[in-house]
Design goal:
Blueprint lengths: L1 E3 L6 H14 L5 E10 L2 E10 L11 E9 L6 H16 L3 E4 L1 H11 L8 H5 L2 H11 L3 E19 L2 E18 L5 E16 L6 H25 L12 E10 L3 E7 L5 E12 L2 E5 L2 E6 L1 E6 L1 E8 L6 E7 L4 E6 L3 H10 L1 H4 L9 H16 L2 E3 L14
Parallel strand pairs: 4-5, 4-6, 9-17
Antiparallel strand pairs: 1-3, 2-3, 6-7, 7-8, 9-14, 10-11, 11-18, 12-13, 12-15, 15-16
Helix pairs in contact: 2-6, 3-5
C-alpha cells in the first residue's frame, strides 16, 4: 500500500495512517520506506508502507496406513523384508502418511485369525473382510501392501586384457497396493524396478545381501515418488463413505427356555396360566472381530460392513456369526445354555416348580417367594414382561 504526499499539509494525515497500520499488524512485520524530493518549489515526501501478514494454514490431516511387506522372490530373508519396511516407512512418512508397523498389524491378524503367520498375510488380506477388520481394529484408513515380486540376475562374462570378470545385473521389482480400509478395495497400485550391475572377479566380489539392501532402498524411494503421485491425484482420499460408525441394537434370549405366567391374587392365591414368557440373559459380552465392545442387551457402535460378531456369557455356548452391520440394525441373539449353566438355571427356578395352582400362601410365604424372584432377576436373567417382577395382584415376573 503506497501513500504519496504532494502538499506539506498532508504530512500529519500520512503519519496517522502509518501509525494505524503499524498497530493493526505486527510491528516487526511492517516496513516504511521514505523518499523526499523537491517538486514545484515544494518539499515532497513519499512514504511506502508495507505490512506483511503471515497466515499459517493448519497441517492437513494425515493418512493412516497399516503396512504389510511380503516376499514372492524366494531369495529374500526376514532381515531384508524388515529393511524394506523401514525404507518404505521412512520415505512415505515425509508425505504426511502415518504408518502402523507390520509387527503391530501381524499381532492384530493373529488375534483375528489364530495361527496366522507372516507368510500367510497375503492370503489373509486377499479376503476383503480380513482387510476391513484389520483396518478397523488398528484405526487405519488404508492398508499398504508391499511385495518383493522379483529378484533376478543376468550374467555376462568378460575376458579383456588378460582379466576375466563377470558382470552381473541384479534387478529387484517391488509392487505396492493401497487398499480402502473400509471395503478392502484396491485404490492404487504400481510396480517399480531397480537394477545394479556388479562386477565379479577372482579377487573381488560383492555380497548378495548388500546389493539387495541397496536395491530395496532405491525401490523404496521410487515407491514414495509413485505414492505421492497417487496422493496428488486424490486416490487415497477415495475411502468409502460408509466408514463412519453405526449403531446397532442387540438383544438376547434363552433358546427354548420359558417361564410360566404366575400370578398372586389379593388374598395370596396362586394362579398359573398357560401363558409363557421368554427369558433374556443380561450382561452378555459383545465382541466384534475379537475385541469386546459392550454388553447385551443394549446398543453398541462399530464401523459399517462385514464383521465377526460374537456374544459370550458364562453358562452359555458362545454365539458367533459373520454379519453386515448397518445403522439402526437390530439383532436378537438366541443363547443356548451349557449343561452346567442349565443346572444352575434349574436351581434358580426350583421355587416355581413347587407352586400349585389355586394354593393360598401366608404373608410370610409371599415374602419368601418375592425374595426368590428377586434373586432370579439379580442372577442375570430378565423375564420379558412389561410388568417386570411384581408380587401383589400381578405377575410374579
Amino acid at each position: 500500500m503506497t501513500f504519496t504526499q504532494f502538499k506539506p499539509t498532508c504530512c500529519a494525515l500520512l503519519f496517522i495512517a502509518g501509525s494505524l497500520l503499524a498497530q493493526s499488524g505486527d510491528a516487526s512485520k511492517t516496513a516504511v520506506q521514505t523518499k523526499t524530493f523537491d517538486q514545484d518549489g515544494q518539499k515532497v515526501t513519499e512514504r511506502t508502507i508495507t505490512t506483511v501478514v503471515r497466515e499459517v494454514a493448519p497441517k492437513p490431516e494425515g493418512t493412516t496406513v497399516a503396512i504389510f511387506v511380503a516376499n514372492r522372490a524366494g531369495k529374500v530373508g526376514d532381515s531384508e523384508l524388515g529393511a524394506l519396511e523401514d525404507y518404505i516407512t521412512g520415505r512415505v512418512t515425509d508425505l504426511n502418511v502415518n504408518v502402523i508397523s507390520g509387527e503391530t498389524a501381524l499381532e492384530a491378524v493373529a488375534g483375528m485369525e489364530p495361527g496366522a503367520k507372516a507368510n500367510e498375510l497375503d492370503a489373509q488380506l486377499a479376503q476383503s473382510t480380513s482387510a476391513v477388520r484389520l483396518a478397523q481394529t488398528l484405526g487405519a484408513t488404508h492398508l499398504l501392501q508391499v511385495t518383493i515380486s522379483g529378484f533376478d540376475s543376468n550374467k555376462r562374462n568378460i575376458d579383456a586384457y588378460g582379466v576375466k570378470a563377470t558382470n552381473e545385473e541384479r534387478t529387484a521389482r517391488v509392487t505396492y497396493k493401497i487398499l480402502d480400509g473400509n471395503t478392502g478395495a484396491s485404490l492404487a497400485a504400481d510396480t517399480v524396478r531397480v537394477s545394479k550391475v556388479v562386477q565379479q572377479t577372482d579377487n573381488s566380489s560383492e555380497e548378495l545381501s548388500g546389493v539387495l539392501n541397496g536395491l530395496l532402498d532405491e525401490a523404496a524411494q521410487k515407491v514414495a515418488v509413485s505414492l505421492k503421485r497417487q496422493i496428488d491425484k486424490g486416490r487415497l482420499a477415495q475411502t468409502s463413505a460408509a466408514q463412519g460408525l453405526v449403531t446397532i441394537t442387540i438383544t438376547t434370549e434363552l433358546a427354548d427356555v420359558y417361564i410360566p405366567d404366575v400370578r398372586i391374587g389379593a388374598e395370596n392365591t396362586i394362579s398359573i396360566s398357560d401363558s409363557k414368557y421368554k427369558v433374556s440373559a443380561l450382561n452378555a459380552t459383545v465382541e466384534i472381530d475379537g475385541i469386546a465392545v459392550g454388553t447385551a442387551p443394549g446398543q453398541i457402535q462399530a464401523r459399517a460392513g462385514l464383521h465377526k460378531l460374537r456374544v459370550v456369557r458364562e453358562g452359555f455356548k458362545p454365539w458367533e456369526r459373520t454379519v453386515n452391520l448397518s445403522n439402526g440394525q437390530k439383532l436378537n441373539v438366541p443363547l443356548e445354555m451349557t449343561d452346567a449353566g442349565y443346572a444352575r438355571w434349574q436351581d434358580a427356578t426350583a421355587f416355581i416348580n413347587d407352586l400349585k395352582n389355586g394354593a393360598k400362601l401366608t404373608d410370610a410365604q409371599v415374602k419368601v417367594l418375592e425374595g426368590e424372584a428377586k434373586m432370579l432377576e439379580q442372577s442375570g436373567f430378565k423375564v420379558d414382561t412389561k410388568e417386570g417382577i411384581q408380587i401383589t395382584n400381578k405377575s410374579l415376573f
